[in-house]
Amino acid sequence: MNFKNLKEYLAWLYYQYLLITGIYVLEPWEKSIFNSILFSVITMVIYTSYVFVPIHVRLALEFFSGIFGGQPESTMALMN
Question: Alpha-carbon distance 41 to 49, whole Å?
């Protein structure tokens, strides 16, 4: 794929984005505000999932391993 095809493909994707979200009818300053808010929300979702999902997965694994017969903790490990 050469550069011209890539540029046309990206322009087509951007056009599809404008049509799907309906922001093609907005003025340029409204588009920039909408895109800024959308970018901020997507960034916060990615950051939150990066920070909190591993914690919840670990807690869920500990919970379900205890329910479904995981290795019981020894009393010596609890004393230390």
Answer: 12
